[in-house]
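User: quick one, fold this
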Amino acid sequence: MQSMLSAKSAPVLFNALSGVAKQLGFDYCAYDMRLPWPVAEPKVVSLNNYPTTWQQRYMQERYDKIDPTVSHGRHSNLPMVWSDKHVASNRSFWEDARSHGLHAGWAQSCHDAKGISGLLNLSRSDDSVSHKELREISLKLSWLVGVAHEGLSLLLIEKHMPEAATQLTSREIEVLRWTADGKTSGEVSEIMNITDRTVNFHISNTLKKLNATNKTAAAIKAARLGIL
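Assistant:
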């Protein structure tokens, strides 16, 4: 726990995370951080110690589009244990995973106020994950998800999405809120009792701070980052 909380880089923290996963009985560990931007194709940052052949296969086949753990994690924070039900829903994917040594696993996601989501996937090459085992380690696994997301997102976000740390003034936020509601600059100036020039000044500042191309993009990005 101490090594994870004191890690100064993502690789160091991930190594510590993998060590804890190993102690809990899992051979492999993966953490995927899904950014809220861009909207059409959100960027995903991945760290894992899966077999190299499986990593290549996963990317080649674009398995992220059909991986049941990924789709589950996007809609629920509840843990998911690999089971026969999931195997039946996409047999070819699971058979391919098993051929690369991934026979059993557990996954859980975490979503924060900035719109960033993280998915922790633990797996191993043999044995299923029993109910008895889950009862014994469920609290540790839930704690691990929170620590992994809190630590890794902080270490990765500055490089991959620096806008997440953006600080807007109260006036800039108010202008963006009205913009997000579809108001024109003229309408915003009347609502806020300020000039059109002042409205456009605030919008210009938010475009720079959020690295957005126009005010619509700035409003959407701010909303997805939890700024609004």
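User: anything notable?
Assistant: The radius of gyration is 21 Å.
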